[in-house]
Specification:
Porin, 21 strands, 472 residues, 51% strand, mainly beta
Length: 472
Amino acid sequence: MKLSSTAILALAISSVTATAYAETQSQAFTPVTVNEKSAQSEATGFVEGQSISGTTRNWYANEQLQRGGKFRYQKDGALETTDRRINWVQGTIVKYNSGFTEGTVGFSTEVAAYNAIALDRDRKDLASGNGGAPEPGRVRPGNNRTLTENGGDAVDQWSKIGLANVKARVSNTTLTAGRMNFSSPMVDVIGNRALPSSFEGVAIHSEELNNLAFDLATFDRNSPRTEESQRKFRSEYADEIIEIDRVNTAGITYQPFASLTTSLWGTQAEDMWNQYYFGATHVLGDSSVLSLTTGLNYYKTVDEGKAVLGDIDNDTYSLSFGLTHQAHTLTFSYQEVNGDEYFDYLHETNGIYLANSLLSDFNGPNEKSFQVAYGLNMAEYGVPGLKFNIYQARGWGIDGTHYKGGAYDSVKTMDGEHHYEYGIGATYAVQSGPLKATTIRGTYTAHRASENQADGSINEFRLVTTIPFNIL
């Protein structure tokens, strides 16, 4: 991986600053030892350990395209256009978890019903991106915010089984089979809509060693956020929908120091790509005086098997530095894509752990981007649970003119493209009472782009309220 001179300079300056203040944060080495505590030995029984819980989320988004962009949608069988798109959806999850049976091998099950109600049925889109118009050669599905009929009117109400799996556990190792949640830098549940995604397959998670965890999984379907059915996996940014049969992933998470967490993952998207990831987070200092949090995320992507998307050779990384003093956090993030195609990831996943993945992912071919963000935690001023944030990010140098051809041909028009994004948000989490842990999040985001940058120019306001509940 080649770090730019800008990133190296930022690293040097931040390291000097942190050294001056970093005295209280523990940097002690933590050896890898056998975990003598067995999670299975504490199993209480299938019925005795059961629970029924859930969440209900009110998700509202109001978007308006700028600079002449239009959303396209179907109304009464005819194609219509509008510069504004409103989605208001109530998503509810009711989840049943059994306890693990007692014995050397324990068994349990998890089932969750997902339901969505469209509270606003106005103007749903057929196409998105590039100011609402389909990009050259790109095939887009319908609305990615709620279930629609033929890319037009929202379905009033729909339901599905979001989770349905069985688990077997020995000591501190658990095997899960069925439809499940899964979290990794490449296959990760994405929960930025009224309902989250989930994945169908088999996964093993092991914590037999302290400070060293192992994961191994294989999936053949995903359950999209805004659909009733399951689908095969595909990429997020290819010009056409090209589906694959299986995704295999494996990773380790290691914490060599109390202040340092690292992870290493590899994922095979069959006949599409092999993708490798390294991530590290390090904390220095005392936030009551000054602390520095450094984050590094690096992805290497190369084509695999039949290479259904064409040749891929992509190195992408982000480097971030967050300075915290009591209630205040100031973060600087640099991100760079080295490759003539997008840095791409799997659709219906949050498989992009890059610092500048915002409303835009800032992942164009050969793109460089920089973000400045400020966060304020009002707990320091007597209002626990209330937080504010503001940021601005800029991307430049987007160049796809050297792309050799394949599933990303739309990048060939990108020659020196640039864009910027800014946003402001507030979050409040209820601290006590019957609505404890309820969160209310409001954000306003604006994005402006040059002519051939794919995300277009748009303003968006979101208001999301999430209420957890327990039945049993």
